[in-house]
Amino acid sequence: MTRCSGSWGSWRWAVEQSYAIPYPQLGSVLGEQEIGVLAQLVNSGENLSGGRCREEFERCFREYLSVPYALSVTSGTVALEIAIRLLDLDVGDEVIVTPQTYKASAQPLLNYPVKVRFCDVDPVSLNIGPEQFESLITSRTKALILVHYGGLPCEMDPIMAIARRHGITVIEDCAHALGSEYRGRKPGTLADIGCFSFHSSKNITTLGEGGMITLFDRTLADRVDRIRSNEADAVYHEKVRAIRERTSAHPWMMHPGFAFTHGCAAIRYGGTNATLAEPNAAVGIVQLTKLDELVRRRTEIAATYTDVLAQFPGVRVQEGPDPVRHGYHLYTFFVDPASGILRDRLVSRLDAHGVQMQLRYFPLHLLPEWRARDHDAGECPVAERMWFEQQVNLPCHPGMTDRQVDQVVSRLDTVLRQEVRNVPITSAAAHEVEGNPQCPK
Hints:
This protein is an alpha/beta fold and about 450 residues long.
């Protein structure tokens, strides 16, 4: 495979090859089935910009979730942008969001003259909890945007009861949560609007990018369809008199036919082209059939990690409401500095032993763009404490081999024992695991 030289992607790829267990850039597994449907589609001569594959992918997604409307778009970020458009935000409105997420969950709100309230998270789940949510509600609160962090569902029943009492729209960011369940129901069906991502790193992918919006309201679904189809999101009405007589051309040439018969009373948004292409949708159909097996493998890896972590006091894993099915998009555990285990030293040791580490995610309210909107340190003390002092994310994805999982377990056990014994970092300690820690292939 050839790779472009001098690019960020090629540099990152080179770095990843120096690790025995690179942090996943691919969250799913692609194979011959996906290649087969792509070849069939390309050779069919069909339009690749949107058609039967997109319609079939949306139908399969609706059936999987048991939701009446599912509309595909070009990315999870676009799904969130369109969902926020549906809120019809105005000056002075307030939106509550989580700081513990990727920036796309809140970034569209920078385009609106609204007050964003970052809601601190629960230290056990890293999700917004009912109490944290309710404490931030005011008479101007218009919406809540929550994230099922890492694939662990939020405590949705009490959250939705609070939202209904206050007339608040709830958007689920389900980017991590495809394959998860909450009390027998799937994320994307637990609130008013659901947004999914099919980025390369997610639990299924549609060739690198893609997204889905799920809804229960027909009017909102119609608005999403117009926005993603490069139509104006507007209020139309029938005119008493047409602008001019129709031409004598065939009816199918007359798109849009209502241009002759309708006027526009109000324009909410101009619309955009967010059409999920046919090759992406074709791969999505195949990936959806593999989802349960992909999540099963993630769960298997997570259970192996949990077993070794259970041996160490001062270490605990992410937990949430019961009963839930965790999708394990991310595997997260926490260390207690009071036990002598220091998070930064721990992740540095793991990295030195060939396990590439990432910490997901830097608290959003501390990003420069949000500090420019008067947010600052101390606003979400739990989220800040967890990310800066306690939180660790381990590689967990279905493409990992059994050997790689065993390597993570062995090295995790080694570095935790070093931490418990307070062994200083030395070249000898870094080589305690057999082989060169930087390239132990």
